[in-house]
Amino acid sequence: MNPDLDLCLNHLKALVGFDTSNPPRKTMESGLIDYLNSLDFIDPQIQDHGEGSFNIFFTKGSPKYLVNVHLDTVPAGDGWESNPHELVIKNNKAYGLGVCDIKGAAACILTLIENGLSDYAILFSTDEEAGQSTCVKEYIKLRPGFEGVIVAEPTQNMAVICHRGIVTGTQEFFGQAGHSSDRRAMTDNAIHKLTHWSENALKVAQSHDHSSFEGLSGIAFNLGIIEGGIKPNIIADHAQVKFGMRPLPGQSHDDLLHEINATSNNDSKFTKGFIAPALPSSGDIKSLELFVDELDLNLSPPVNFWTEASLFSEAGYKAIVFGPGDIADAHQPNESIDIDQLDQALKNFKKIIQ
Prior knowledge:
By secondary structure, this protein is an alpha+beta fold. The chain has two domains: 3-163 and 279-353, 3-Layer(aba) Sandwich (Aminopeptidase); 166-276, Alpha-Beta Plaits. The protein contains eleven helices and 15 strands.
């Protein structure tokens, strides 16, 4: 086996062993911080932003680019055929929680630094899966002076320069309770109001089916959770729907929310959830194409999933997404990554960082 790859798998084994699932985001309790502090080839600067959100930054030399990797994972869930926190190598694949999303990239970077990489700037963060991105937002406030940012996510070692944004929210509706035999249930029932709103929102979403950007089309609207009512013979006095949509680059979140009538008035209330831009946030993709050429990477088609690269893009940085693994293998039992992809990522990250 390639000695670099062997070392990479050793680091990956250690990283998988720390339960950094999010929730519950018990980062300090997992042992991850202690492990990184114990490595004698890095000198991490650690910032605790509360509630398990840690930024771990280490640098050397005069790096041009920042590489960001999140070390939190989704919870393991059911269906695992092995311990999700033990690395298993089988059929040229590595299995374990987070190997694909995205501890494999972190293991590659630690390997390269241990082997003598002289110029680098690395930011490990721990709350990407939380849907609030406290780590990256707090880091951006420092206005670090890098020419570009590479955010690690599973892209099959291709450079992603275009993906959707994300908007989530809760729309509540209020009615007047009473016996369902009263005809006013037709107008006073909160669930009925929610139903009418949902029908209109779906029509608005459908009207955007022909909107497109670089091969992505539509706004991917979704009604996620609906709650309300007590029993069939009581007029519901409260109902709510949690919804999400994935705008295209260049689309205004506020305009879309206005179109679906996400507002507050006497009988309804809108509460914003997690809202973040698409990549590129400005809709200008040409500079990112040049950045990918400069890094000598293969360009990926646009992807539907959201990444924190868009937050760096919004802050004015050239930001792309790159990493080993296939997003189809993430967020599910028996998460895996091809060993060959890790091997290739070692070469690509060395090229990128240098």
